[in-house]
Each structure stands twice: as structure tokens, then as C-alpha cells.
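Reminder to self: C-alpha cells first, then the designed residues, so the page reads top to bottom the way the pipeline ran.
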């Protein structure tokens, strides 16, 4: 349930087009809808400005389809993350208008108008091509929730000239997401180049002593750039969710 949808229902009641009983029927799934296996939080858009997102890992295809359908019926933009191919096919069979992004491992369905104004600008940066799944999860998440996204990929510190070549594009964003594995140095460098929040995402990329992203995580947590904050290993979604809120706030102030 989007704020605009709630206001539309209240306006219909005010005009006498809709009875209070009819409004109550439309609102019966608030604050959540109990599907038996899942309680879908339809109230989240009203509280937080962004709808609930489906974490598909560990769920059956049938469960994901049921949750996806419930969110679609409420009128919000719908996103499922960590979706495997079989689950994606099941969702698309029910919702052919949705888009499957194999690299990002997401299925998304935008239900807003195609003319919906973009709300803020986010740059998604990654150190190398091995970081693409996490970077694309972040990019698709931000795009699903109507942020303008600039992708700046394969600009790691091993070839710092590649990053400096895109410095101008970095400085145009309201927030920057930086995905990197190995030693996790890239967010600190980016943080020294821009005057906006940098959200660092350690990725589970690297040889043995990278400890599946733990080395990058610790390196990012110890960043000397004070505008760098850190999310969990491989959590492109969490980085994007926060970046969207930052970018929206910046766009409102502009």
C-alpha cells in the first residue's frame, strides 16, 4: 500500500464515492497479510517510503510466487532478491511483466507510471568483474525504486587511473555504492574523491586469506575516509536500500 493509494481511498470516502465499509475491505490486508507461511508487511511503504522486499534464498518457488503476487496486488513496486532460475521462471509465469536479472539474481516488477520522476542519483562502483553480481543487485534495487543509477565497473585500485578517469561521474551522484573484494581498499579511495555518503559493500571475492569477504569487511570498517559506512558481505541490496533513502532526501532538498 503506497501513501498515494491510501490517500486516494480516503479521498473517495470523502467524496462519497466509496463507503467506509468498502474502504475497510480494501484496507483489510493492513498492516500485514497472513499467507500461512509468511506475513507480508503491506504497511512498510507507509512507514518507510519503500515496500517490503522478498529475500528468495531458502524459500520455495511457490512461497516466492505467493509473496510476489500479494505485493503485486497491493500496487507497489515489487522486488525479489537472491532468486534462482527455477524460481524466476515460476514468478514470470504468473507475472510476465516482471523482469529477471540473472547476474543480479533478482526479479523486479515496476508498477508505477513510466513517467514517474527519478528520485535522486546513485553511482554504483565495483572493483572488478567478479564483483558484478553484488554490484548489479545494488543497481537493480536502486532502479526498481526509481533512483537514477550510473554504473562504473572494473575501476579497482590495481589500476587507479581507471577510477580517476570517471571522477566527474562520481561527483554527480547523491550517494555512491562501492563493491569490492580482495583487500577492500576501493571505498576509501572513492571516499577521498567525493563529498557524499559512500556505502561500502565487501564482496566474497579473493584468494584464501580474503576469508570469503571478511578481510575486505575489516578493511572497510577501518577506512580512514570519514564518509564511508559499511554493510554486510555481499549485501548489495542493503546498500542500495539505504542509498535510495539518502538520494531521495537529497533530491527533496534540491
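Designed residues (254 positions):
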Amino acid at each position: 500500500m503506497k501513501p498515494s493509494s491510501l490517500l486516494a481511498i480516503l479521498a473517495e470516502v470523502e467524496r462519497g464515492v466509496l463507503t467506509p465499509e468498502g474502504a475497510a475491505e480494501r484496507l483489510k490486508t493492513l498492516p500485514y497479510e497472513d499467507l500461512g507461511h509468511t506475513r507480508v508487511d503491506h504497511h512498510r511503504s507507509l512507514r518507510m517510503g519503500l515496500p517490503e522486499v522478498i529475500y528468495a534464498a531458502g524459500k520455495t518457488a511457490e512461497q516466492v510466487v505467493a509473496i510476489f503476487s500479494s505485493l503485486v496486488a497491493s500496487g507497489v513496486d515489487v522486488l525479489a532478491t537472491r532468486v534462482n532460475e527455477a524460481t524466476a521462471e515460476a514468478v514470470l509465469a504468473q507475472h510476465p511483466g516482471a523482469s529477471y536479472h540473472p547476474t543480479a539474481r533478482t526479479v523486479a516488477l515496476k508498477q508505477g507510471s513510466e513517467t514517474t520522476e527519478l528520485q535522486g542519483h546513485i553511482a554504483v562502483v565495483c572493483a572488478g568483474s567478479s564483483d558484478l553480481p553484488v554490484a548489479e543487485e545494488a543497481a537493480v534495487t536502486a532502479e526498481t525504486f526509481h533512483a537514477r543509477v550510473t554504473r562504473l565497473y572494473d575501476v579497482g585500485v590495481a589500476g587507479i587511473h581507471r577510477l580517476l578517469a570517471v571522477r566527474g561521474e562520481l561527483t554527480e551522484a547523491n550517494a555512491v555504492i562501492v563493491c569490492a573484494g580482495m583487500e577492500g581498499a576501493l571505498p576509501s579511495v572513492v571516499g577521498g574523491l567525493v563529498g557524499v555518503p559512500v556505502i561500502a559493500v565487501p564482496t566474497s571475492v579473493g584468494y584464501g586469506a580474503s576469508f570469503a569477504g571478511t578481510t575486505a569487511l575489516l578493511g572497510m570498517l577501518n577506512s580512514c575516509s570519514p564518509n564511508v559506512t559499511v554493510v554486510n558481505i555481499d549485501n548489495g541490496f542493503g546498500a542500495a536500500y539505504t542509498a535510495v533513502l539518502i538520494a531521495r532526501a537529497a533530491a527533496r532538498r534540491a
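Residues 3-9+31-109 form one domain.
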